[in-house]
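User: Fold this; tokens only.

Assistant: Input:
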Amino acid sequence: MMRCPNCNSKDIGKIGSHQFYCWGCFIELNVNGEKMSVYQVEEDGTLSSLDDLFFEEEITQLHVNG
């Protein structure tokens, strides 16, 4: 089960083949193998990276099943 690295919510929706959306804190997650990138969705729809807020070790330890 995937958990949000920001709010630890399990309420994650799939929005693309490697893209997910957290309904708990409204961030977008992109998963490529074991690597995850985290983005804030801005008012105009653009994405701002939040990767610098998370330790690389913390992001790569997350596991995706399904």
